[in-house]
Amino acid sequence: MTADMQAGKPMRRTKIFSILLVLAVILAGMISARSQTRITFPKGKSSARKAGKISTGGRICYFLRAKSGQKLTASVSSLSGRVNIFESGDTVYSETVETTGDQSVCVDNLGRATRYELTVAIR
């Protein structure tokens, strides 16, 4: 094998690695997008409900817009009783929003796959 051919091998490996890295980043973004959902409130309403199925050990994050000073509350219930908000062990969450913009509420399943219902309110 000539020196030119050997020099080409690291270049080819670098290209392959770069392509694989780009594909991994794209795939991670696609997976992440599936587990994030925006909550919008019906006109004149300050609360909304979301229901669904969550996989074993899964996490689903919901995003909503809120203004500084508003109170964000959330509660979750599930058939298994093992679904919590933010891995806290709690099924109820409340906070006063500090900064206007997107806020998140994540539902974490600490058990087997199950159905859940999330209620979120802004006041």
| Amino- and carboxy-terminal Cα gap | 73 Å
Q: Report strand order across the widest sheet.
A: 1-3-7-5
Report the biggest beta sheet as strand number plus sense, adding barrel if it closes. 4 strands, mixed
Instruction: Output the number of helix runs.
Output: 1
What does this structure look like?
It is extended, with a radius of gyration of 22 Å. The protein has one helix and eight strands. It has one helix at 3-34; strands at 36-38, 47-54, 59-66, 71-78, 83-85, 92-96, 101-109, 114-122. The chain has two domains: 1-34; 37-122, Jelly Rolls, CATH 2.60.120. The chain has 123 residues and is an alpha+beta fold. Helix content is 26%, strand content 43%. The strands form two sheets. Strands 1-3-7-5 form a four-stranded mixed beta sheet. A four-stranded antiparallel beta sheet has the order 2-8-4-6, with no helix packed on it.
Task: List its salient traits.
123 residues; Jelly Rolls; 2 domains; 4-stranded mixed β-sheet; 1 helix
Strand-helix topology:
Layout: H1 3-34, E1 36-38, E2 47-54, E3 59-66, E4 71-78, E5 83-85, E6 92-96, E7 101-109, E8 114-122
